[in-house]
Design goal:
The protein is of the alpha/beta class. It is 43% helix and 16% strand.
Length: 367
């Protein structure tokens, strides 16, 4: 099954790699200004190339680093796969990359199983700024303890990809109870087991995803962002890509990346999913009006209040699909309708623009 995955490049795999590599570049461009060393670590790296010759995520990351003079002298890359053949294939693919000799730190490839010993090692390390990518074939090796261990230090963030169908089936399977408890935490896993029997397939998925995101944010100090993949038959969810960060800026950057890679946008708001049906059967009209919903939310929640754009965006956008341009589009409309007034300290403001320090006063009692 593992071998067949790399026979050809699926649209899903391309989108997944694009999201990870785009985020890596944005993250690295910021963090490299504040650290002499940064790292990218892939715990389930695979063979490097698909059989059609397309680069998978490790080679996309390395290729981009080679082209950046500054990053090439700061980036440490570590790749791991428990399959020895994958490791050898990846080593060969890395060796054959044009310009690989320009990297100050030679990429390291390890052949280890991801388990409790590796987690303990990460827990005991003081990590340099690191972006971790965890892409297991099922769920073995993916655990809450692992995520906690790798995001504990400054500028360390984690992206993981998981097979929804396997986890959905595994939650009520006593033979994999230990793995499910490791992923959700026993308390959250037990809550799920008690709830799932009465739920429809759609509600079941939402409940599982909600509990997973809550597990990844135990003390409320993290930002968790999911992206959904629909299977090739367009019939059900196949995977989710989950991003975990301690910093709003990282969350905001990834939200922009995921929004742009969504297969569908309505009123310029991304769906945060990749569904092949969106390209095969494009709609001639929009089914929902998410910007209208955003307008109503802002009028209700900020009625009579004055807040800067930065404060509004950072407070209100968490857990919602909207990016900054969506807010600015709605606020511009509200200003035209005289539902808000604005002031800007120090500098003159061009009407219809919303810099971070623009103060926005909402009319009292709208909607």
């Amino acid at each position: 099954m593992v071998d067949s995955f790399f026979d050809e490049t699926s649209e899903q795999s391309q989108i997944k790699s694009t999201i990870v590599s785009k985020y890596f570049w944005a993250w690295a461009s910021i963090i490299k200004r504040h650290s002499d060393k940064i790292a990218y670590l892939d715990l389930f790296a695979g063979p490097g190339r698909y059989k059609d010759g397309t680069n998978s995520t490790p080679l996309l990351i390395l290729s981009r680093a080679i082209q950046d003079a500054d990053l090439s002298q700061k980036l440490i890359t570590v790749f791991n796969d428990k399959d020895e053949a994958n490791c050898k294939s990846l080593e060969t693919a890395i060796k054959n990359l044009d310009g690989i000799e320009n990297l100050k730190y030679k990429p390291q490839v390890f052949n280890n199983e991801v388990g409790t010993e590796m987690v303990k090692a990460f827990e005991q390390m003081k990590l340099i700024p690191t972006l971790f990518f965890v892409d297991p074939w099922g769920y073995k090796g993916l655990s809450l303890q692992l995520v906690n261990a790798v995001v504990k230090d400054w500028a360390c963030e984690c992206i993981f990809f998981f097979n929804y169908n396997r986890i959905n089936m595994g939650l009520n399977n006593q033979y994999v109870e230990e793995h499910m408890n490791a992923l959700f935490g026993k308390e959250n896993a037990d809550v799920l087991r008690n709830k799932l029997e009465q739920l429809s397939p759609e509600d079941r998925e939402l409940e599982i995803l909600e509990q997973l995101c809550e597990s990844m944010n135990p003390n409320g100090g993290r930002f968790v962002l999911p992206f959904r993949f629909i299977n090739e038959k367009c019939s059900r969810t196949s995977h989710h890509l989950i991003f975990v960060s301690k910093n709003f800026l990282g969350y905001d950057i990834m939200k922009h990346v995921m929004s742009n890679e969504s297969s569908k946008k309505e009123q310029s708001v991304g769906s945060f999913e990749y569904n092949p049906a969106d390209k095969r059967f494009p709609m001639l009209f929009e089914l929902s009006q998410p910007l209208d919903d955003l307008q109503d939310m802002l009028l209700n929640e900020f009625s009579g209040k004055t807040v800067s754009f930065k404060q509004l965006y950072e407070k209100h956008s968490i857990g919602k699909p909207y990016i900054d341009s969506n807010y600015k589009q709605v606020l511009k409309k509200l200003e035209e309708q005289n539902h808000i007034t604005t002031t800007k300290t120090n500098k003159k403001r061009r009407k219809g623009t919303f810099a971070d320090d623009v103060l926005i006063t909402f009319s009292q009692g709208e909607n």
